[in-house]
Amino acid sequence: MSEKLPLLDIKENTLHFDGVNLVQNIAAKYGTPTYIFSENAIKQNLHDLQTAFTSQYSQTEIAYSTKNNMIFDISSIIAEEINFFETTSLAELILVEKLSQQNNKPLNLISTNLFKPDGLIAQIINFGSQSTLDAKNNKMSGIIAIDSYQDMKNVERIAKKLNKKAKVLVRVNPGIQMSREKTIFASAYPDAKCSTIIKDIQPIIDLSQNESIDEWLLKRTHSPKYDFAERIIQEAEESKHLDLLGIHGHLGSQVTNIDYFHHFFEVITLFYKLMEEKLGRNFTYLDLGGGYPVQYSKTEQVPSINEIAVSLSQNISRAKIAPHLIIESGRYITASGGLLLSQVNLTKENPSGGKIAVLDMSAYGDLLDVIAAKWHFDISLVNDLPVGTDSANKFNWDLVGSTNDTLDQLNPIDNSDNLDSDLRSFPRDLEPKDFVVIKNAGAYTTCFNSNYCGRPKPMIVLIEKDKNIRLINRNYW
Q1: How far apart (Å, rounded) are the C-alpha atoms in residues 170 and 229?
Q2: What pLDDT does residue 186 have?
Q3: Which CATH class is domain 8-38+339-471?
Q4: Tens digits of per-residue pLDDT, 197-223?
Q5: Residues 57-99: tens digit of each pLDDT
Q6: 432 to each of 262, 346, 383, 385, 410, how far by Cα in Å?
Q7: Superfamily of domain 83-329
Q8: Which of 29, 110, 184, 199 lies most in the core, judged by the most C-beta atoms within 10 Å?
Q9: Residue ranges of the domains in the chain?
């Protein structure tokens, strides 16, 4: 990759994204609200992710989690760089097939949803068999991450009917202590809806060199009859219709506590070792998805991807295993590669002396994570930026969406008496027709878009690597 340049910079008092003037080249031509994606930024994020993990553990591949952004043009950029995609639906499977055809490149998918209809299971087992790629180079394969005992039996039944062996991973829940208040999308605590729990934790505790493991590897309060990882792994190994390739694990989404990564990696790698010893053979894959975070606001403390990679490689080394490692990531790859450009429709005063700016977008339809996940997106003024020492952010504003709903605000309502927590600061007072840009808007935004209150969905543009700007279709293929 070439030298990494700042994505956002100021030229002639106007904010630029990837070298493009957001007012002249985007707003004037496409209007607002508009999502803006940068090909260079997406490729840089992929490069950074790949480099961080391969520098610590060379046998690493990245699998793109398509559900976070299924736009074909965005996925196509990613398909140029990697060979694995993580999918959860038939629509995503078809997307990967189309990407493979367009790029004339064999791609592999890992299906992870907790429920998979029979038709989808059959499509995954047969994935790549009808490909028009050169047979010599066609190594496409579909892998199913088994989420429960019934899920395994469904996969086994369909594989038997097709007279084939389904390639599978077993999705394992380590059952560690996680704060569900602070980590909204945690998925590695004992009662999480996805994955199968590790039933017997004592062998892991015995192998661990961590003196505090008893404090965060939670004791099991119930012994499931069928839905536990050890049983599913053993039965998958013995099945004539399943080809057990390894273990899958998922920590969560946007996990910002580095200790959770340490604990997750330790339990999963030790369990991987124990299962290899129990079966008397080596697995092929260790697939670890979720959690790799993005810094959404300036005040948020987020572990670096390098810290996370170091933790994982250390745990692999301590466990004395040698898997082919797959890192599933969606948010980290696309979030900072996209912005949402919006315009101030009008300004108004409130009785407390505050100032409100009504934007031409809506959190409901255009930025749902503000409401659903209480995300604090960083927001900047775009045009007529003051220069010099007076440009500090001294002017506080409450930014709201254009619908009448109370929750349609750009800062989550925290139900506290601290009104300042809902304010945004800018280097000057806002005026109607000003433009603001919402950063890190490339993940879980376009896929959540709706026409709530009859509003049209924002347009989407792509800044290509040669700085050409084009309108792109939000369709999946």
Answers
A1: 7
A2: 85
A3: mainly beta
A4: 999 999 999 999 899 999 999 999 888
A5: 999 999 999 999 999 999 999 999 999 999 999 999 999 999 9
A6: 48, 5, 12, 15, 17
A7: Alanine racemase (3.20.20.10)
A8: 110
A9: 8-38+339-471, 83-329
